Amino acid sequence: MSVNVSLPDPRLEGRTLKRIVYDAPEIARRVRELGAEITAAYPDGDLLVLGLLKGSFIFLSDLVREINRPLHVDFLVASSYGEGTVSSGNVRLVYDPETKLEGKHILLVEDIVDTGRTLNRLMDLLSARNPRSLEICALLHKHIADELKHDTKFIGYDAPHEFLVGYGLDHAESFRHIPYIASLL
Ligand code: IMP
Ligand code: MG
After folding, report:
1. pTM of the model
2. Mean confidence (pLDDT) of the chain
């Protein structure tokens, strides 16, 4: 365990841990496995790994170092129209990668899939650009509601139905830098 849970973790802003769901060594082990799966799945062609910001930034940086083949990295920043939450399903790209996607293998990397609405819209936008293939890699998948029209080909964990923070996941922008994934009381 990377943190002594009997001591207060100063990163938690005074909040109390309910439990650590995945500790840092466990995450590293699973990310290594995912990297090997992804390496095997793309024997040829150009691979562009697209991280959906902000939530994927830590996962993506660990994941690409476990993918043992050539690749390029870029990012997407999505924003919702009007309604205030990204889960409204009305998604617009605030930052759009410069690189052309046509003819490339695109791997969209997401921190967590909840309802899947964000990814539905993004996948529609990206597939219109004629990539050679388009797949999703999500560290966590809640399998809730499952409005996702597209399969998530690479999944780190089937996540418990709790609100999770750490390893890139936030609550009101806090706790992204916690090196483990936890639920708070
Ligand atoms: P969806 O469109 O409902 O699938 O929402 C996915 C987005 O909601 C993720 O990219 C996260 O930003 C956020 N989200 C969903 N569940 C959690 C959670 O348990 N912790 C932190 N963020 C979450
Ligand atoms: Mg978020």
Report:
1. 0.91
2. 90
